[in-house]
Amino acid sequence: MRPAAYSYRKFFKYPLKIWKIGKNDKSLVFSKGIEIRQIIVALLLFGVLFLFRGSINQVLPTALQLAFYAVLPWMIAGAICRSKLDGKRLDRFFIGYFRYLYTKRFSYSSHKPIYHHR
Q1: Neighbours of 93 (CB within 10 A)
Q2: How do residues 16-40 score in pLDDT, each as one tens digit?
Q3: Are 50 and 43 in contact (CB under 8 A)?
């Protein structure tokens, strides 16, 4: 007899978060946690801004550069991660969209969908 399968739905229902950095008395604790996907999106935005740092640094004064490179990507990443498309989180929307593109079973001929059996 097969053992009961484990459902990962509860595991992936909420985003993964970092609650604590460090150990003992020197640890940094976040009460609401920091989402890992927000960290990844912020690093990607920082990388894009870093590519154009020469032209950005000419426009911004030195005092605003730290805020521009540190705070702005974090705030934009937070807004992106909290946004919803078709009632879904952004990552779930794109996973479903790319899964649809990969596994769709029909093509178009003369502007009419034709179903392909597999």
Answers
A1: 15
A2: 888 898 888 888 998 888 888 889 9
A3: no
